[in-house]
Amino acid sequence: MVLSLDMKTAFISVVLGHLFTVILISAYRYGHKKDRLINTFYVSKWLEVIGWGLVIFRGSIPDYISLGLVNSILFVGIAVETIALSMVQHAYNRQVKRRYIAFTLFSIIGFNLLVFLNSTEDARIAFASFCTGMLLVYPVYRMITGSYTSKLKRLMGYLYVIVVIGLFGRALLTLFTDQSMGFFTPSMYQALSFLSLYLIMILENTGFILLYKEQADERLIRMATYDDLTATLNRRTFIEQAEGILTQLSRSKSAVSFILFDIDYYKTINDTYGHIAGDRVLAGMSALIQEKLKDVGLVGRFGGDEFAVLLPGMNEEESDAAAEELRKSVEDLQIPSIPVHVTISIGIVTLNKCFEPCVNKLYKWSDNALYEAKHRGRNCAVRIRFTEEQQGVIEYV
């Protein structure tokens, strides 16, 4: 039994699907016209609307338009859409851009040469299918193998793998079997081809919007979690994460150290060189601190030039060494174009075995030690050590 479709009606449904996406994006773009990512996807949808729309008039317009021009538009549309898929994964750069431009030009020139040389429909179908599949390979590969691939990206990646395999399979079947793979030739493959085209449209449109939403959510979470200037945890997030870690350490009777530090004479730096220079000092110092404590401790900005560090599992000796390394590293730090000598004062507290998982108490104790460090001349670390009666005795590290 041969299932025959009215392909003009079928293509109208595809065009309408892309057109409704364009309309919805147009409404969203009204307040987001500078969003490069959404604009890229928006352009790709318009190109697909135009390309598939022209297919509807096949037979009523010259072949060089219905074949050469239409497929050229679709190649560009697919290329722009795959660029958008790469951008939403933060996997788009100048090198990728050059490769896409080169391969898109290859696809357009190659297909139009086949049209000009009056090649068979099978050759054109095979070439177009192969080129379309190749355009999808890079973003699909990144979806599946990326370092921070979400479940959504991975699922979309596997669905796109099916699409790519189907396109390559269509190219091979066209070349090595007698079956026609054309959209306008009634056959079982015609129905499968259209069904695949329709499902791909849903995957492209819905999938991209979900990826864009996921990216926006990640951006909002980052804004709510990290300090913009220093890229350290903000105070609220630091306390939440620190108290979770403290609870675990208390149950396992492990040691924990807490460091509080600020920049010496930071107000003088701002008053002398300006707040922009002060911000550069903060950014440079926090970047250094985070590099030194990478995978070791939790770093957060508590406000102004004051920072806190939680060092899980570190006893007094280990935290003293960590604090001294931080102090010396900052002392050696040079901020480009700002002739200032940056130093920090540090307060440290260490708790052993069972303790109450309360960040506010650790902050209060280390703040007392930090105040003593200021009193003793700055650019030093002071520890508050507890006696059995929990009386604070301030000592140098």
TrEMBL record:
Keywords: Membrane, Transmembrane, Transmembrane helix. Residues 254-386 form the GGDEF domain. The chain crosses the membrane at residues 12-30, 42-61, 67-88, 100-119, 125-144, 156-176, 188-212. PROSITE patterns: GGDEF. The keyword Transmembrane applies. Signal peptide: none annotated. CDD domains: GGDEF. SMART domains: GGDEF. It comes from the Bacteria. This is GGDEF domain-containing protein.
